[in-house]
Amino acid sequence: MSSGASPLGSLLNNPQLLQALYPGLNLTGLSQLQQEEETALEQPIQTLTNEISNFTQVSQTWSGIQADVNALASDASALSTATTWSSPSASVSPTGVVDASASSTASAGTYNVDVTTQGAYDQWLGQSEASSSSALNLQGTFTINGSSINVTSTDSLTSIAAKINAASAGATATVMTGTNNGVTSYYLALDSTQYEALNISDPSNILKGTGSSGLGMVEQPNTGKSWVYTVNGVQTSSTTGTDSVAVPGLTLNLQGAGSTTVTVSTSTSQAQSALNQFISDYNALQSAINKATGKGAILQGDPTADGIMQQINSALLATNSSAPVGYQSIADAGITINLQSDNTTQLAFSASTFQSAATSNAQALQAIFTGSGGVATQLKTVLNNLGDTSTGVIAGVQTNIQSQISDLTNEETQEQGLITIQQNALQDQFNQEMQALIAVTSQKDQLSGLLTAMLNNGSGGSSSSSSSSSGG
What is the pTM of this model? Predict the structure, then answer.
């Protein structure tokens, strides 16, 4: 059996064996040719892969810029809010008369508070009873602040207290316990929930009756009084111990009789902190755009990227000529836009200029940023238009990029299918060429073997004839 009888499939998958069986085959040249053809087939795929990679990098760059834009938008939103600029605080001296807290609507000023009557909850205490749970054999009705409580003969101190509490009459009932010479006694106590006297109506003498006819309750001295006080000479009173009406935005928690001064002041520290954050985020955004649009960078020449800082700076540099002199632009608040060596901008902040403006006219300083014409208000609109993740300009750019990536990915998939078909055809062609070469090589080897045998046979015959002749 000739060498051509070996299974071709196994030989083609084992180049070393194939080369050993057929030394004359030029497998190196054939394999190199096949590799070059396969590389040529894969070139379109590589081109598409590179395009997808480039668009992906562009998308990632825009994602970073969008995040920076939205961080700046958040800063602008804070600066456009009045509460950022007005942070009132209240101080009290001396303490012990009132405690005070100021909301964002409180006006700066000094308020003299004089508490003339210290409030006291109304307190009633009953006579001693031998048991808290035994029936008292009392029957009738009484009212507390208009709420009716019905007592039956089976009610005890505990059940009467429960009925009072369930009536939500502005009073709390408690059964108290006392011990004297080893004897335990029980008492019903009433406390008002407001600083005012309880309005009690007791026609059946359930509460006020004594001995076995009632609970013997008596109002305690110096109780049931509202707070009485003046604020800057205007007298008022409170049954809750709290006042949030006398001075809008200022809450007074009454503590005791006496005189004190409450000072409400505003601070711009929160606004200054917000400005520092804004400047830091502005500079970060500018640096990110510089990096993305510089020479050879991935967004070089992109008009959308180039226009972002132009829109932001246009809003920042707006002036309000109708505002007071010295409070018409961000420069008056201590913010300057400085040109860098690469012709880009960076913000700088002068805390001393800001504080000077705040001390001279805090409201005018705030107006530079807040209100419909404020710089921060205008900036917030510009930045939201750029960075909104649903409707913003950058979101539109990202949608377009993702659409192109999707189209290229689909094209890559289709191209891969075509390449697979071509590669299979190329492999079939390679196999056929190998079969032809193997056949030619096999025939060549066989012919070479026959020729060698014929030559060897011819040489042997001549030698024999010469020997015979010599022997005769």
Answer: 0.56
